């Protein structure tokens, strides 16, 4: 087996149940089992679909800010509650619980890394809940 560097911004890393890891084209497949590591360089809120809520039903998600600054926003769980917001700076991360609707907003251009099981993940435009 030849070991070569992987460009994390041009590939996703798939971590299969059997312990195999491999690089693949950066496609978020909501039917895929196994963990997926994704790294993105983002310049604007549009790059992180800040106007959409996201949820992962198969696993928690680790979201980390590698550079820049982001805000992880959590949708209210009950009517009348306010949106919760956690600020992440370079070198910090948060675990988003499985089944918790969330979105990302930027404070600055950033590099973001996330890890989750994509199976069953969904997006919903803000305001459609």
Q: Would you write up a description of this structure?
A:
- With 129 residues, this protein is mostly beta strands.
- It has a single domain, classed as Jelly Rolls, CATH 2.60.120.10.
- It is built from no helices and nine strands.
- It has strands at 12-15, 21-24, 35-42, 52-55, 61-74, 84-89, 92-96, 102-116, 122-125.
- The strands form two sheets. Strands 1, 2, 3, 5, 6, 7 and 8 form a seven-stranded antiparallel sheet that branches.
- It is globular and about 55 Å long.
> What is the gyration radius calculated from CA atoms?
15 Å
Measured distance between first and last alpha carbons: 49 Å
On the 0 to 100 scale, the average pLDDT is 94
SSE string, helices as H and strands as E: EEEEEEEEE
Percent of residues in beta strands: over 45%
Query: What is the number of strand segments?
Result: 9
What does the largest sheet look like?
A: 7 strands, antiparallel
Could you name the CATH homologous superfamily?
A: Jelly Rolls
Q: The CATH topology is what?
A: Jelly Rolls
Looking at the structure, what is the overall shape? globular
Low-confidence runs of at least 5 consecutive residues: none
CATH architecture: Sandwich
* CATH class category label: Mainly Beta
How many structural domains can be distinguished in the coordinates? Answer: 1
Helix content: under 10%
Structural class: mainly beta
Can you count the helices? Answer: 0
